[in-house]
Each structure stands twice: as structure tokens, then as C-alpha cells.
Design a protein that fits this description.
InterPro entries: Bact_response_regulator (IPR050595), CheY-like_superfamily (IPR011006), Sig_transdc_resp-reg_receiver (IPR001789). The chain is an alpha/beta fold. The chain is 38% helix and 20% strand.
């Protein structure tokens, strides 16, 4: 290894995008985290209250949301953050069809979306060129 290679190897990696996955379903959360990690950091919230706490405490590059939450409609959470000026992209990943007035940037039906479709949608919303790493 020459000096240039050694210096290149020591360069810090770009920080991974941070995604908040809001979903009460433990299995869906595990599948999504397994699919996205290590290229994407994933934090999970199982309720609206937990999601709200996460959104106030950290900055996220994408929110993946199942609107059917045990403590309310997740769409109301997104509406509140849009009203507060939060413009983080949202991927609605839910068995429930979105209303005409939903605030999500994309929608994927759950559980009928393939892992490849989910990965491609996340990459597109994060503006990442990671598709090559997953083939």
C-alpha cells in the first residue's frame, strides 16, 4: 500500500442518511432495517408519540410511515410537521390507500411491495445512487 492508498483508506466515510421508520409492526420494522442497514441509519418509532419525540430530537433525511398507528393516524403527524415547516420527504408504506390530500412524496402498498421496490424508492427519495451496491 502506498501513501495515497493509505490516506484514501483513512478518509472518513460520508455519514449515512438517517431514516425514521414509523410503524407499529415489529416484523415490518425488522425487514426494513435489515434491507437498509448499513447504507442507511434507521431509527424506529412504534407510535405517534414516539415518532414526535424522535422528530423533535433529531434531523432525519427521510420518514417511512405506516399511517395506521396504535395511538392515532400517522398522517396527522405528518400534517402537523408540514404545518411547522418540516419538509423531510415521506414514504407512505402502508396497507391503507392514501387520501387525495396526503402529504407523502411516495406511496408503496404494504405488504405487496418487493424489497427491491422499497430499496429503489428509498434511494430515489434520498437522492442516493446505491442501487449498484444491492445487486
Amino acid at each position: 500500500m502506498n501513501m495515497t492508498d493509505a490516506l484514501e483508506a483513512c478518509k472518513p466515510l460520508a455519514p449515512a442518511p438517517h431514516v425514521l421508520h414509523v410503524d407499529a409492526d415489529d416484523t415490518a420494522a425488522l425487514i426494513l432495517a435489515t434491507l437498509l442497514v448499513p447504507e442507511v441509519r434507521v431509527s424506529r418509532a412504534a407510535t405517534m408519540a414516539d415518532a414526535s419525540s424522535h422528530l423533535h430530537a433529531a434531523r432525519f433525511d427521510l420518514i417511512i410511515l405506516d399511517a395506521d398507528l396504535p395511538d392515532g393516524d400517522g398522517q396527522a403527524l405528518i400534517d402537523a410537521f408540514r404545518a411547522a415547516g418540516c419538509h423531510t420527504p415521506v414514504l407512505l408504506y402502508s396497507a391503507r390507500q392514501p387520501s387525495l390530500h396526503h402529504q407523502a412524496h411516495a406511496y408503496l402498498p404494504k405488504p405487496w411491495t418487493s424489497p427491491r421496490q422499497l430499496w429503489q424508492s428509498v434511494c430515489r427519495l434520498l437522492e442516493l445512487d446505491l442501487a449498484g451496491k444491492r445487486q
